[in-house]
């Protein structure tokens, strides 16, 4: 847009802003929160006229002017707005008309990962910190729609993002939450977040999760892990863009990740969670239906062994887990003893799936052809030392946080 910095337009916006500040203050003290009176100001019509003279389309320019007035009113209603506030909003309005990116400072309530103290630096513009007093004052906590029980807020995710599209901010929050879910075994999810912005268009919308979610398992992270988490986030965010939904998950890694997430987060019995996690492993390790249980257990055990896990324990665990998965799929009922056994298997299966997703993601391009290449390397490494060395090279140089495994009988 030409002539954006015209002195006349800037002065007209300031005059409208100062007038709105004064009149809105009087209205709020009377308990009047209607914007109609403010839009009838002579100063408002003058700004619309100047915008129309430069850019045409009167209805669009009226919308911009209304946003400007509404933002001043909201600032006064929810904060201590003054002349300096108006001057700042004038510059934001000018920037908006120029098409400049807006600065968003989203704040999200996170479950599943607990920050011991201070904050953990995820990236240059993203922090994860401990919940502080007052954090929830301006954000209602999300409630499970059926149970009515509040979902626990374990940490606060904050970021600074400059963009013209607020959807980019939402993608960053979703991507960061997904990466935190992979960093360690935890039911990490976003309960609620507010898209605070420094643009003229609004104070920021709050978006709440409406799904029933598991809140366990959780993991604890400290400030001393900033370097590890930063390296982990950097590696995954460069190679992976999380699919927006199940329907868009078309590659093996994305499909496995959604099974992993469902297994961790859905409020279903443990045998369903175990079966779902096994399906995630099948998405990565199987290409045919022959000897499924044997191939699955053997391949997973071989790859996990080069990460430092006990291959024999992994093989027994996956073998038992696959048997329980088959029982569920074929309609068998579970005894109390079998349910207790399922609970002991879950953590190891989750850890194998989480680690596998990371390796498949960072070792290749997530496409089916590369999945087959990794499987071929695993199978060949069982009999050929050269392929065994090649398998070791698939393990990425990022923290994998291997779990201590319990034996399986």
Q: How would you classify the helix and strand content by structural class?
A: alpha+beta
- Strand segment count: 10
* Broad shape: elongated
Low-confidence stretches: 141-150
Elements, N to C (H/E): HHHHEEEEEEEHEEEHHHHHHHH
In the residues, how many domains can be counted? 3
Mean pLDDT over the residues: 86
Name the assembly state: single chain
Sheet having the most strands: 6 strands, antiparallel
Helix content: 40-55%
Q: What's the N-to-C terminus distance?
A: 72 Å
Count of discrete alpha- or pi-helical segments spanning 4 or more residues: 13
What proportion of the residues form beta strands (DSSP E)?
5-15%
Give me the secondary-structure topology.
Elements: H1 7-30, H2 42-55, H3 58-78, H4 83-98, E1 102-104, E2 107-111, E3 113-115, E4 119-123, E5 126-129, E6 155-159, E7 161-163, H5 166-183, E8 189-194, E9 206-208, E10 219-221, H6 226-239, H7 252-265, H8 270-285, H9 292-306, H10 311-329, H11 336-363, H12 368-381, H13 385-392
Parallel strand pairs: 3-10
Antiparallel strand pairs: 1-7, 2-6, 2-8, 4-5, 5-6, 8-9
Helix pairs in contact: 1-2, 1-3, 1-4, 2-3, 3-4, 5-6, 7-8, 7-11, 8-10, 8-11, 9-10, 10-11, 12-13
């Amino acid at each position: 847009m030409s002539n954006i910095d015209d002195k006349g337009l800037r002065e007209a916006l300031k005059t409208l802003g100062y007038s709105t500040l004064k009149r809105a203050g009087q209205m709020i003290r009377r308990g009047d929160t209607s914007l109609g009176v403010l839009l009838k100001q002579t100063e408002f019509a003058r700004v619309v006229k100047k915008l129309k003279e430069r850019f045409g389309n009167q209805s669009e320019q009226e919308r911009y002017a209304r946003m400007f007035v509404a933002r001043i009113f909201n600032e006064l209603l929810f904060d201590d707005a003054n002349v300096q506030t108006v001057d700042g909003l004038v510059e934001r309005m000018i920037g908006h008309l120029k098409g400049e990116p807006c600065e968003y400072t989203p704040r999200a309530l996170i479950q599943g990962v607990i920050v011991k103290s201070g904050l953990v630096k995820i990236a240059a513009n993203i922090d994860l910190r401990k919940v502080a007093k007052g954090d929830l004052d301006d954000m209602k906590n999300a409630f499970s729609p059926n149970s009515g029980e509040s979902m626990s807020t374990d940490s606060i995710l904050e970021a600074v993002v400059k963009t013209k599209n607020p959807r980019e901010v939402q993608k960053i929050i979703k991507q960061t939450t997904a990466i935190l879910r992979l960093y360690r075994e935890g039911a990490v999810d976003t309960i609620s977040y507010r898209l605070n912005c420094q643009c003229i268009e609004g104070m920021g919308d709050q978006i709440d999760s409406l799904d029933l979610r598991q809140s366990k398992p959780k993991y604890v992270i400290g400030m001393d892990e900033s370097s590890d988490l930063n390296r982990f986030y950097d590696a995954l965010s460069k190679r992976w863009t999380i699919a927006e939904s199940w329907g868009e998950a078309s590659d093996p890694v994305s499909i496995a990740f959604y099974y992993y997430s469902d297994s961790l987060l859905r409020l279903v019995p443990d045998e369903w969670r175990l079966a779902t996690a096994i399906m995630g492993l099948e998405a990565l390790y199987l290409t045919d239906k022959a000897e499924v249980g044997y191939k699955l257990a053997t391949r997973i055990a071989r790859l996990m062994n080069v990460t430092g896990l006990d291959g024999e324990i992994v093989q027994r665990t996956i073998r038992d887990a696959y048997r329980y998965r088959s029982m569920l799929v074929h309609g068998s009922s579970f005894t109390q003893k079998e349910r207790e056994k399922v609970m002991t298997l879950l953590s190891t299966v989750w850890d194998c799936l989480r680690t596998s997703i990371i390796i498949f993601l960072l070792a290749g391009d997530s496409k089916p052809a590369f999945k087959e290449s990794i499987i071929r390397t695993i199978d060949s490494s069982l009999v050929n030392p050269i392929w065994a060395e090649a398998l070791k090279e698939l393990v990425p140089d990022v923290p994998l946080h291997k779990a201590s495994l319990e034996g399986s009988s």
